[in-house]
């Protein structure tokens, strides 16, 4: 049996990118890969809109409920973040945050400037008053991603 197992060692496949379609329902999301696999994951909010982030996944903006705005106004607390990214069907959606710069990346692993300067302070999330208006679509040969947000209260594009 041991010899048979050694002879049948699975060959490791190279990682490959597979096109996918994301479908967001009220409380779940589905990912349908072109190779026939599909994944289901929980979505703890209603999705307003989603944008592809080639080759990483998808960026999601959630709907802010009126009751959440009222509660934030009463308590004086800020509204929770509204922009998230999903890079794996096995991970939770992560908050999209702002950084003042990226250090390294060519010789050493890249790090965020904010993490180097103050390792105890978390990154600042994109303000919940900002709505995503447009996200560039980077193709296989592209180098940069650009996202445009608008803050209607301040009448400001970022």
TrEMBL record:
Pfam families: ANAPC1 (PF12859). This is Anaphase-promoting complex subunit 1 N-terminal domain-containing protein. Residues 7-67 form the Anaphase-promoting complex subunit 1 N-terminal domain. The lineage of its organism: Eukaryota, Fungi, Dikarya, Basidiomycota, Agaricomycotina.
